[in-house]
Amino acid sequence: MTTKIYVGNLPYSVTDSSLESNFAEFGNVASAKVMMDRETGRSKGFGFVEMASAEVAQAAITGLHGMSVDGRSIVVNLARPREEGRSSGGYSPQGYAGKRSDVGYGNGGHGGGRY
């Protein structure tokens, strides 16, 4: 089973392949992915690496946490599982999240509503 590692405070110059090569010296890397901004196509400054085993992952965490990459001290630790049920708002199958009864159309105030 693979172990997922979070890598933060990455310089924008880091790519998937350079991230993988940095971790490969500690053991077999199943995957390495730098998170990219959808709109700009630029790195978000963090990524995830999946290592072949927990022992290899721990060795990589110990060896790379705090290491300076292009003048930035990177953060390396075990990735936390995604939290289900967290919502940043926006549209969901239940409709628009973030509904408030005191704002919007038809509640008086500017833009019409009840008189």
Notable traits:
115 residues; alpha+beta; Alpha-Beta Plaits; two-stranded antiparallel ribbon; 17% helix; mRNA binding; RNA-binding protein
What does this molecule look like?
The chain is built from 2 helices and 8 strands. It is α+β, with helices and mostly antiparallel strands and 115 residues long. It has a domain of 75 residues: RRM (RNA recognition motif) domain (Alpha-Beta Plaits, 2-Layer Sandwich). The strands form 3 sheets. The chain has a 4-stranded antiparallel β-sheet, covered by helices on one side. A two-stranded antiparallel ribbon has the order 4-5. The chain is globular. The mean pLDDT is 84. It comes from Chryseobacterium sp. B5. Keywords: Repeat, RNA-binding. This is RNA-binding protein. InterPro entries: Nucleotide-bd_a/b_plait_sf (IPR012677), RBD_domain_sf (IPR035979), RRM2_NsCP33-like (IPR048289), RRM_dom (IPR000504), SLIRP/GR-RBP-like (IPR052462).
